[in-house]
Amino acid sequence: MHKQNAIGKSGSRNHSKNNLGDIGNLLKEGRISKGLSQGQVATLLKLNSAQSISDWERNYGSGVPLNALRKLIKLYDLETETVFDALLEYQFLRLKKDLRKRFYK
Fold first, then answer.
1. Mean pLDDT, range 24-52, rounded to an integer
2. I want to staple 69 with a disulfide (CB 3.0 to 4.6 A). Which of 4, 9, 27, 64 is the partner?
3. What is the Cα–Cα distance from 49 to 52, expressed in whole angstroms?
4. Measured distance CA(92)–CA(85) in Å, rounded
5. d(Cα 29, Cα 34) in Å, to the nearest integer?
6. What is d(CA 26, CA 32) in angstroms, rounded to the nearest whole number?
7. Comparing 46 with 6, which gets the higher pLDDT?
8. pTM of the predicted model, to two decimals?
9. Mean of the pLDDT values across residues 48-69?
10. HSE (CB half, 13 Å, CA atoms) of 84?
11. Is the separation of the CB atoms in 31 and 7 below 8 Å?
12. In 3D, which of 2, 21, 24 has the Cα closest to residue 69?
């Protein structure tokens, strides 16, 4: 069963199509809507520091590990399909950028 909206009961809006692929912003909005700091989320996920949370929210690095993403969906009360669609678009855009860079060398 899917959640009612992308942000959860305390959030102010659904994830819009304009932000599709911005998985980091979706996660940041979810965290803020639950009133959690990056440090608190890192502790709940048993991470050594909040740096990973910061990186994920900025779409920096290799991306959110799927195991962690599943936990964040539950923690933030996010709509599974919305997160999946954002992740799919994010991965597509990364691949497109990488292929373009290598193709047009």
1. 97
2. 64
3. 7
4. 11
5. 9
6. 10
7. 46
8. 0.76
9. 94
10. 5
11. no
12. 24
Q: Residue 1: inside a domain, yes or no?
A: no
Task: Give the burial string for 21-42 (b: 16+ CB within 10 Å, else e).
Answer: bbbbebbbbbbebbebebeebb
Structural domain harbouring 43 = 17-103
The band of 8, judged by pLDDT with boundaries at 50, 70 and 90, is very low
Distance CA 33, CA 59 (A): 19
- Any idea what DSSP says for residue 84? H
Q: Give the up-direction half-sphere exposure of residue 2: CA atoms within 13 A in the CB hemisphere.
A: 10
Higher pLDDT, 11 or 94: 94
Higher pLDDT, 11 or 21: 21
Does residue 30 belong to any structural domain of this protein?
Answer: yes
CB 27 within 8 A of CB 55: no
- Residue 19 has what pLDDT? 52
